[in-house]
Amino acid sequence: MGRLIAKTAGDLTYHVRKFTVGEIYEFFSKAVDGQSAEPDWVGNVLFTDATLSDIISFTDLTKDKIHAMEPEVLETIIAAIKEENPHFFAACQRLEEAGKRLNQVLTAPSEESVSSNGRSLP
Fold first, then answer.
1. Pairwise CA distance, residues 98 & 70, whole Å
2. What is the pLDDT of residue 61?
3. Low-confidence ranges of the chain (pLDDT < 70)
4. Could you tell me which residues come within 8 angstroms of residue 42 by beta carbon, excluding any fewer than 6 positions away?
5. Residue 37, helix vs strand vs coil
6. Which top-rank group of organisms is this from (predicted)?
7. Buried b (16+ CB within 10 A) or exposed e, 66-104
8. Residue 57 and residue 59: Cα distance in Å, rounded?
9. Which of 60, 62, 63, 108 could be a cystine partner for 15, CB 3.0 to 4.6 Å?
10. Do 14 and 69 meet the contact criterion of CB atoms below 8 Å apart?
């Protein structure tokens, strides 16, 4: 397991896990395997850079503690997580960009399906 690094946000003291390469592999593997689980829509979209599940994975904070916090405090915690795990978040960014490029390719009309007037054929 990676190191635990003590951090503070106001009066709160918590620990951020600095993931090892093996833990990053495991995290991505669990994310792929867990796609069939019931999603936490709010927790997945509340913040731009991380989910509430990410905060739980990268810290020693519990779901109950996180739910009792104001979003601004959690933004500070997310910043600390990103500071200690820059390679993980860079990999996430690259995967997101690759997914967007792939989506553009998959959703762009092919030349064969466009008629001479520029409209897509059924």
1. 33
2. 97
3. 34-38, 110-122
4. 52
5. coil
6. Bacteria
7. beebeeeebbebbebbbebbeebbeebeeeeeeeeeeee
8. 6
9. 60
10. no
